[in-house]
Amino acid sequence: MRAVVMAVALMVMPMVAGAERPVVVELFTSQGCSSCPPADRLLRGLAGREDVLALAFHVTYWNGLGWVDPYAFEGATTRQKRYAGLSGIGGIYTPQAVVDGAVDVVGSDGPGLRRAIAAGGRTEVAVSAVRAGDAVRVALGAGRGAGQVVLVGYDREHVTKVARGENAGATLVEANIVREVAVIGAWDGTAVAVQGVAPAGEALAVLVQAGDGRIIGAARVSPE
């Protein structure tokens, strides 16, 4: 198992109570889906915003329809299926955007995404995180609620020439492609620090996710 959990004293890193966090936009997409490139382009625009954490999860269920997406992984499909069982999320489809783990928007619907982002970003736990080599330390402030602490590894950009399937002949430029997700601990409302091993990916983010799927804390991981 890649993740190791370690509760340590909160003094490991400073916390700022009530710190603002980015709104988390998760796009479930596939290179084999002809409806997905417009959503991928929207996500690329969001990836440049500091107030938004844009993440592209490439699902696996398009892989048998003419083109195997090189960035698809089962963890993305599992995450989308989990959202489908929660209130406010309308089943499984691509391109599907889930904002802050609570609002389901068609991934190519720019106005709908902007409205959902404007309404998101509520912070229930302040989060900060640093990386030193393969070790990631996450500090969580005190608050009301509980949730899992999740590390997300992602690559900032990839360019792919699609040879077959619905997007045959297209060159896709995609941003913030998730490569691996790892649960490294839990938050129970108390101030605590958690340590884990960095998942695959050029960049890292940390999410705190309640049992009902809502994102209640989030931060990009900074180098030490």
Verbal overview:
With 224 residues, the chain is mostly beta strands. The protein has three helices and 13 strands. The protein has helices spanning 36-47, 74-84, 110-119, and strands at 7-8, 23-29, 52-58, 96-99, 103-106, 127-132, 135-140, 147-161, 171-187, 192-197, 203-209, 215-220, 222-223. It has a five-stranded mixed β-sheet, with no helix packed on it. Strands 3-2-4-5 form a four-stranded mixed β-sheet, with helices on both faces. The radius of gyration is 17 Å and the shape is globular. The protein starts with 6 loop residues before the first strand and ends with a strand. 45% of the residues are buried.
Layout of secondary structure:
Layout: E1 7-8, E2 23-29, H1 36-47, E3 52-58, H2 74-84, E4 96-99, E5 103-106, H3 110-119, E6 127-132, E7 135-140, E8 147-161, E9 171-187, E10 192-197, E11 203-209, E12 215-220, E13 222-223
Parallel strand pairs: 2-3, 6-13
Antiparallel strand pairs: 1-10, 2-4, 4-5, 6-7, 7-10, 8-9, 8-11, 11-12
Per DSSP, what share of the residues sits in E-state strands of 2 or more residues?
A: 35-45%
Counting DSSP H or I runs of 4 or more residues, the number of helices is 3
Low-pLDDT segments: 1-18
Spatial strand arrangement across the major sheet:
1-10-7-6-13
Q: In angstroms, what separates the terminal alpha carbons?
A: 24 Å
Shape: globular
Largest sheet: 5 strands, mixed
Which properties best describe this structure?
mainly beta, 13 strands, 224 residues, four-stranded mixed β-sheet, disordered N terminus, five-stranded mixed β-sheet
